[in-house]
UniProtKB/TrEMBL annotation:
Belongs to the PspA/Vipp/IM30 family. It comes from Aphanothece sacrum FPU1. Residues 217-249 are annotated as: Disordered. Signal peptide: none annotated. Residues 231-244 have a biased composition (Polar residues). PANTHER family: MEMBRANE-ASSOCIATED PROTEIN VIPP1, CHLOROPLASTIC, PHAGE SHOCK PROTEIN A. The keyword Coiled coil applies. This is Phage shock protein A, PspA. It comes from the Bacteria. Residues 108-142 form a coiled coil. Residues 217-230 have a biased composition (Low complexity).
Amino acid sequence: MGLFDRLSRVVRANLNDLVSKAEDPEKVLEQTIIDMNEDLIQLKQAVARSMADRNRTEQQYKQNLSESNKWEQRAKLALSKGEESLAREALVRKKTFTETATTMKGQLDMQNSQVDTLRRNLVALESKISEAKTKKNMLIARAKAAKATEEVNKTLGNMDVGSSMAAFERMENKVLDMEARSQAMGELAGTGVENQWAALESGSDVEDELAMLKAQFSGSGTGQQISGSSMDQKSLPPQGTSKDSVVDDELEQLRKQLDNL
């Protein structure tokens, strides 16, 4: 294969590719229907011409057949009148018209067959056009749906959905961290308050117990009141006693007080 042949093939391939890409299904189908309708018009015209030719041939056939019959009758009339020469002349005329009628009959048969064929083709083309129109509407609808789907997919492809969802996930995690910190701070604040209440309640219990002990001490024994001065005198150790004896006396007093409780 020569260089120019290869270049020509490459050019044709590129042109065909450009044409294929530039083809709009709706426009191509519309033009196809237009072309088919034009073919239908031409076929109808061909059928009309064929029928007209057939009709003329049929008319000529009938005329020649009629003339043949007429000269046959004249030949008979001439013979009946004894005019043999006239009868002979009439038969010659009859033969001419008969041969012409026979030729016309063959042509007429051929034209009838042609007209029938054209009519069948006409009906078939009309059926194809009707089918093509239905199919055209369906293909155009499918093409529009495919184009719409392609545009939607293209739009979705241009969307950075993954990045958007990642941003949502980050913000969700941040909100969860904020809620966790807020809950922890609330728990810590609640713990401080609880500790304060526990301290107050604990202090109150100690004070109440201390008051009860004081009341018990004040009401213990045989009904004698332990005044501040008597306690001071009893708590003072006698002169001349040792430190250990003072301690022992104080412990003994505490035991007696506890026994009287």
